[in-house]
Amino acid sequence: MSSHRTPASSPRTTDPDWWRQAVVYQVYPRSFADTDADGLGDIAGITSRVPYLASLGVDAVWLSPFTPSPLADGGYDVADYRDVDPRLGTLDDLDAFVRAAHEHDVRVIVDVVPNHTSDQHEWFRQALAAEPGSPERARYVFRDGAGESGELPPSDWVSNFGGSAWTRVPDGQWYLHLFAPEQPDLDWSNPEVRADFEHTLRFWSDRGVDGFRVDVAHGLAKDLSTPYRPSNEKALPLDGSDPLYDRDEVHEIFATWRSVLDEYDPPRAAIAEAWAPAPRRVLYARPTELGQAFNFDLLEAPYDARAFHEIIERNLAMSAESGASSTWVLSNHDVVRHATRYGLPDGTDTDAWLLTDGTEPELDRARGGRRARAATLLILALPGSTYLYQGEELGLHEAPAIPHERLQDPKWIRSGHTVKGRDGCRVPIPWTRTGPSFGFGDVAPHLPQPEDFGDSSVEAEDGDPASTLSLYRQATAARRRLQQGEELTWLDAGDDVVAFARHEGWRSVTNLGTSPVPLPSGSVVLASGPLDAGEGMLPGETTVWLG
Fold this sequence. Notes:
This protein is an alpha/beta fold. It has helices at residues 43-48, 50-55, 91-103, 122-129, 191-206, 250-261, 278-284, 297-300, 305-322, 338-341, 350-355, 365-381, 410-414, 458-461, 468-482; strands spanning 23-27, 60-63, 107-112, 142-143, 166-168, 174-176, 211-214, 269-272, 291-293, 327-329, 385-389, 489-490, 497-501, 507-511, 517-518, 524-527, 537-538, 542-546. An eight-stranded parallel β-sheet has the order 9-8-7-3-2-1-11-10.
């Protein structure tokens, strides 16, 4: 039952279902805009760019972590869940951003990272100072080791960043970390842990935050009974029996969270990052839980019409069954940008490609950009919410040639220098054609930008009707005008084509092949590229919206 809490700031419109068909723009705060000349983006920088965000026509901005962090994992190692990292600003700065966004009718979603804290979190420092078996250690997963004197890890579980998922402390016990050693896992069977995160949800909701993106939502509940069983996140079963991921018990946690989120009017939105098999992923998105879950299927799919069609059809059916709306994602802070993925030969191992500094195989930048524009226009026509990642509206490619000594992603070290990591998509975005950081700030940025970044800057693309920036602005405006309902009707348009109709005759037609195909009749609302394949023909790797 809602208690109709009044937040500090609210958007002008109060539709409780705004998230079902939203366009959400992800900001990686440390790489968006730097106002204090320290090379690191900050909250004031994001606030200064609110008019730009509004000009994109997005419904919400999702902020990746801005909370205090030693940055062992780009901010996903949280030292304090209810404050702002001093390097990024203050709570007053965050409040000012939320107010500015709401004044432009843009909502705010923030990251919450419940699976693990930073090793600098007050709780973990207390745990290290306390005795084995103490209440302080019970907030985390501390266990005795294996072997004659406990010298071996308790189990063979492997960290997502490589190496053992266990680290030993001086008194001989080991603690669990599914990610970096600086990210100790919390024990969600502990009532104190659950109560503290409910406090965090209310803290940010009371400050006007409109929703939450839940990191590693599938990892909270764990079976820690002995003997420890093997875990394999790459091949999770459909019965919830993996000891570490996607266990049924996690849903009781999120049902409690929904009760907290529903205390507000309108209720706070939430979306799960849940790397779980598709039939189970929808459980996180039920109205009684978080409401939405990220669908990364297209992000991982080949550029192929049959694959796109099957993924779209399957996810729309599952969303309808769960009562959620689907989500569509092509890029984010964890993957090689889709303009680059689509410009590499099919089947390219992007980790291996990054290790060559992006030289082998050769990137076809033009083709990647063309395909990316077509795919983006396709997903913006679909029912459900579209999540965009900062810089994709500029057609940015991955920055693959970051020198090894400048890499920040823990994957680089933890993998023994065999996985370069995610820094290439986290490089600060360009705002101007020139300058020490292409308008990001007044000094060189924390991650080096490619020399040609200025050609893809906001300054270079603003006002150019053929630019990717103009396409995104036109697409969100047209979508806002045309979008109704949450259904589509498939159209038969050939083997290389994904085509469907929305309400009142609005159609989206994507030619994922290379040869032109017949273009259905109708007035062109928007096209992802030039329609120069001949009268009545749709060029390859192009999407068109027809009215």
